[in-house]
Amino acid sequence: MDFFKLRGTLSRKENILLAIAGFILFVGLWWAVAEGSSKKIPVVETTEYLPSTLDNDSTQLAKLDSILAADSLKMLNASEFKKVYPILPTPPQVVSSFPTLFKKDNVLWHTWVSVWRNFKGYFWAILLSIPLGFVMGLFPGFKGMFEIKSMP
């Protein structure tokens, strides 16, 4: 095994094993980060929107306070919790979302549009940069505009 030998070569079996190990490591780290950032939230019915009829009257504010207190008590006494992933979903959640992406979100069309926009960007970059490079390389006046020399 020439894992750490400079310019060493690996056998086909070692290449395959390292590729599998790298994939497992990547998915494992992804899963660990997703689970580390997950949160458990109580499953209770709460008042999503507070009544809009409340004024600045003290009796109305007491009603508002009691609504919020009742919701807080429901949350404290919850016996069922649901795990949510607000930042990064787990690998099975991503894989299970593919049928929806293909059926409802037309992911192949959007992928093609993104690839086409990249190709157009490369085309315009090449079309502009090659002539500009020739001009900068051939004419000293243009070369001086883009060249930075250090002072002696």
List keywords for this structure.
mainly alpha; extended; two-stranded antiparallel sheet; 152 residues
Task: Describe the protein in words.
With 152 residues, the chain is mainly alpha-helical. The protein is built from 6 helices and 2 strands. It has helices at 12-36, 58-76, 91-96, 98-103, 107-138, 140-146, and strands at residues 39-42, 81-84. It has a two-stranded antiparallel sheet with strand order 1-2. α5 crosses α6. The mean pLDDT is 82.
Distance between the termini: 52 Å
Radius of gyration: 30 Å
Order of helices and strands: HEHEHHHH
Low-confidence stretches: none
How many strand segments?
A: 2
Strand order of the largest sheet: 1-2
**Coarse shape:** extended
* Helicity level: 55-70%
Number of helices: 6
Mean pLDDT, to the nearest integer, reads 82
Which sheet architecture does the biggest sheet show? 2 strands, antiparallel
Strand content: 5-15%
User: What is the structural class?
Assistant: mainly alpha
Quick overview:
This protein has 6 helices and 2 strands, in the order αβαβαααα. With 152 residues, the chain is mainly alpha-helical. A two-stranded antiparallel ribbon has the order 1-2.
